[in-house]
Amino acid sequence: MILAALDLGDALSRIAQGLKYPVLVASIVLLLLVAAELGRFAVESWRRRRTPRGTLRLIAAQALAEPGVARHVSERAPSAIAAQAVRDLGIAGATGRDRAIEHALADYELAVQRRLDRTRLLVRGGPALGLMGTLIPLAPGLAALGRGDVASLADDLRTAFGATVIGLLVGTVAFALTIVRTRAATEDLVALERAVDDARPATAGAPVAPPAPEPVA
Fold first, then answer.
1. Cα torsion through 135, 139, 141, 144, rounded to 10
2. Terminal-residue alpha carbon distance, the chain
3. What is the value of pTM for the model shown?
4. Does residue 153 contact residue 141 with C-beta atoms inside 8 Å?
5. Cα 183 vs. chain centroid, distance in angstroms?
6. CA-based angle 80:94:208, to the nearest 5?
7. Residue (of 126, 200, 131, 140) closest to 161 by Cα position
8. What is the DSSP track for 66-81?
């Protein structure tokens, strides 16, 4: 029984050591991904800063009222996802069906969720891989300490601390991007919904006024 436990522990240790370099490579890949997301966010922020507040609501209402200009006015949208939503609303406005407009808004929400899922995965994956990259080198480092090999211990600790820093950096940046993007997407969705409300006839659903009494001769 003891021998089986020792063999199992040795097998787990070998598996963990075999994961050392894949985990470190994955940490670097996540760092590159978060850097790419930062670049996209910089472009989005620049485009949004150049767009006056309330523009999305105006161009969405215009696309609903004049479907033919939807593609042209969508270029003024604060983001690529919002621009696609304006084009979809233009197509929906041409059909004149409320169901098509609801589908366009739902497609926008799904597109936003797909965009946010990328950074949400980085929020979880960065610290997880950082922790794995921290723990895996500690076993050989402690073994080297037992042999008195301080140089090997120092190398393993340097790897472990580096993985920790990268993991925390990826998680922190990705969390900040998720928060900011969620707020911006929510504001855009509110603007699109208000544009839809503005485009609906003002008399829709209003009670019918009784006819005025005829003047008595």
1. 180
2. 113
3. 0.80
4. yes
5. 11
6. 115
7. 131
8. -GGGHHHHGGGSSSHH
Q: Six-digit token pair at 64?
A: 């609903």
Q: How far apart are CA 89 and CA 112, in angstroms?
A: 16
The tokens 């340097």 sit on which residue? 158
Residue 215: both structure tokens together: 């003047």
Phi-psi region of 95 (alpha: psi -120 to 50; beta: other; left: phi over 0): alpha
pLDDT tens column, 16-33:
788 888 999 999 999 999
Tokens, residue 34:
């978060």
**What's the angle, vertex CA 31, arms to CA 30 and CA 37, rounded to 5?**
85
User: Using CA atoms, how far apart are residues 210 and 53, in angstroms rounded to an integer?
Assistant: 42
- For residue 56, what are the CA distances in angstroms to 3, 66, 171? 69, 15, 31
Long-range contacts for 141-148 (Cβ within 8 Å, ≥24 apart)?
Answer: none
Per-residue pLDDT of the chain (217 residues; tens, 9 = 90+): 554 555 777 777 788 788 888 999 999 999 999 999 999 999 999 988 888 888 999 999 999 988 889 899 999 999 999 999 999 999 988 887 888 899 999 999 999 999 999 999 999 999 999 999 888 888 777 777 777 777 888 888 888 899 999 999 999 999 999 999 999 999 999 999 999 988 776 424 444 444 445 544 4
